Structure prediction request, 584 residues.
Amino acid sequence: MGMTMSEKILARHAGVSAAGAGDILTCRVDVAACHDMFFTVAGQIDFERVNKIDNPDKCVVLLDHAVPAPTGRDALGAVKAREFVKKHGIKNFYDVGEHAVIHQLLVERGFAAPGKLIAAGDSHTCAAGAMNAAARGFGPAEMMYVWCKGETWYQVSPTLLYRLHGGFSSRAVTGKDLFLYIAGVYGDATNMNVEFGGEGVGNLTIPQRQSVATMCAEINAEFALFPCDDRLRDFLKERGDTVMDGVDADADALYHDVRDIDLDSLVPYIALPHFIPKNCRPVTEVEGTEIHQVLVGSCSNGRMEDIALIADIVKGKHVAKGVRFIVTPASQKIYLEALKAGYLETLVEAGAVVTNATCGACYGGHMGLLGPGERCLSTTTRNFKARMGDAASEVMLCSPATAAASALTGRITDPREILVA
Amino acid sequence: MKIKGRVWVFGDEINTDLIFPHSAFRVSPEEQAKLVFSDNRPGWSSLVEPGDILIAGKNFGTGSSRPGAVLLRRLGLAGMAADSINGLFYRNAISYGFSALQCPGVSEMFEEGDIAEIDLLAGTVKNERTGEVRTGSRLSESMADIITAGGIEELLTQQGYME
Ligand code: SF4
Prediction:
């Protein structure tokens, strides 16, 4: 019997020839990364008591959620992170100035690569599946376990295959809309892997795949994997990486279900408050809803092509009165590129607030929290109650195009009205 | 591995940000536990008594890697059962020595205040008042060992990785 992509990667890292749904395997982990919240939040794991680490070169530590530190507690967490990497000889440490949201950092710095098994102390770690890596999130205790032992257990889950066909009908429809459509129609994938295939997958840019793979955490997927196709190989080759261990699913792999999606038929989608599975609608159904804040950023949609698109939408126009338009790039590198390309200038001229690259308001940390009765239209990952501030606020999730088009009107707006091409 | 206790009933999609709100990121461990469900059920954390059991619907613990299970344990809950549990929350439950059972339909079995009996190795949950029993997924021996050890931190300490 053939194997899915996640089965192949798990089998390879467990040193066995085959793996299938239901197996429990102990696997060697290639990269294990933690961000500042591992060190900042008390009572999760007493990391100061650790005395040996398996292999410091496989460890990555970075600051992203609260940079530069907005509170004393965050500053203390950063101090502890710096002490920890020094004590254990961890060279892969990314401090303020070299910072990026963890899932973007793992891609930019080449840690997330085809065929790798990646562990990180963050739920959206499945994001690295865009790079054909099997990646999942762990809590702080288990991250410490992986750092100490270099391995952990994996239960092989059944896999859902989404076969993509055709391409998006306009620039106003992107990867985020594909995800929101999947989550809205099929609901959750709890205790299952999600894999993508079909000839249409080649029409998704790598950042779009990153957006989709990131968001698969919201349907409770274990792994979310894209194939190692020509588009990914070209992306890696362009920046000088050699592709070593890419995996593709076997033609006779066993799936829990196979679902076909015609990309041409997709429209802009939106997730309503306070959860995502089976709670998404076409934007047209909620058009005109009043909004108070628009946020473009996060590991889902704070990348260069997202910023280029929103700059294009708002160029020469102005954000509606009464709306705060916040743009938070996903990394320093993206920030600099967007600056050099003139996009940040365009955005600020249009009335946007461009912030430092950080998780920022996505998790309710800093720079753009909501007050009671306020509604935010956001390209971030979660719309949970009180996620971005007051328990009596609301977050709706959408693509960068929908966010920017809506910032201009102050109401939820179909971006196809503005982006005709 | 059996637990028995008074039941609290919660619905579907109880996410990590409700269990472990961001307001708990910057306070002491004791204060953190008091903030559990402060956004969806204010005051609840002070009503919990040691040994109580939480019953919930679909996708319990959906969301973040923040270890909600450790706060539930710190509050004194003996464990929980839900129709389905997010994979990351489930791993966190095991890692922090908190008993959790996935059992489809369990949310329909209880009214708040009922007494539940959960057998993790058998994968069963019973309502003492109605006598109804349902079977969910069994806990594997190796995971049971982690819970019995008291969680991963205890395990790493026993094995000499932590002082
Ligand atoms: S941007 Fe948001 S979802 Fe992504 S890692 Fe940061 S807090 Fe988590």
About this structure: Chain B has a mean pLDDT of 96. The helical segments of chain B are 16-19, 29-34, 68-75, 87-95, 141-149, 152-158. Residues 87-95 of chain B form the longest helix (9 residues).
